Amino acid sequence: MDVVAVGGGIVGLASAYSLAEAGANVTLVEKGSLGSGSTARSAGGIRTQFSTPVNVELSLASLEVWDDFEAEFGVDIAHRRPGYLFLARSEETAERFRADVAMQNDLGVGSRYLSPAEARDRCPELRAERFVAAQYNAADGFADPNLAVQGYAEACREAGVEIRTKTAVRDVLTDDSSVIGVETDAERIDADFVVNAAGAWAGRVAGMASLDLPIHPRRRQIATVEPTTPVSEDVPLTIDLDTGSYFRPERDGAALVGGQFDEADPDVDPDAYSESMDLEWAATAVERAADCAAYFDGDSRIRRGWAGLYAVTPDHHPVVEETVPGFVTAAGFSGHGFQHAPATGKLVAQLCLDGEASLVDVSQLSSDRFDDEGGELVERNVA
Fold it and tell me: Which of 129, 205, 288, 365 would disulfide-bridge 245, Cβ 3.0–4.6 Å?
């Protein structure tokens, strides 16, 4: 079986690797360099604390790979586990935490519902009086996305994947109702399946196949901050869910600070957006972080920052399906593509080679859910 994977980020690489390991002949095409899109600008979060079972199950299936990545791929991805701490300012959010923790525990996740005082035990400078509850999992953490790309890329080459960088897809080729290959800026490539793992460009690739998928590019920013009080490396990645602010420890007492504060949140052109951090946004992000924790009081210094893209859907869940015969979509992860890439790669291989996905039940992730008004599938734990 011949497969073309479109997109050289972590999801495309994981899909190409799983396909090749299962016996497919795989060509991966990437318009830039490997990992140069959203993956390179990801915060690298790896967590299980999601608000829907399907996202939790994608996390658990991916953890089986992340936990053994160095043994399988020969690359240390700097997987650190200081935990994730979600904070609630409102009783409504606290009630959702109770339900989320119960659901997560039922699926085997060791998350806990915490009081504000218990949350401060994990994050010593937390302004606990401003919160009513928290949820926490000590096993959550983050890794280096660029190192993960290196591991998957080398494994793809060893498995026989033909990787073509600097190769843009210009058209998706169809025959009646089936997709039969792609036209790149260099040549035509025929295939039994085309995998759309193009991240923020996935909507455009779908459009080449005359498909309208609600996957939209959104700009997100991160700042590296030198706090007034150093943040210990054992402090969890802390998310003030009601304001959208978050921070996490870096080396030598520094912190990454982020959050989305633009309610309009417009589409951006993924080929022409600013990759630099906005100073006004950075000042707001540090102010929000200071309102959450006293690490950022006083003269916290913003060292540097950057911007990248989320590929967002209306319910903050990906589309994982064979959208039309011969065209498999694995995109729209809404900021969670890095952590869910290992499981997604295996699901893509199952969809292409077996005709159905069995690793995780992804029936809820089909694009026809957007045909309904107000679907039930909404991920709330988003930063």
Answer: 288
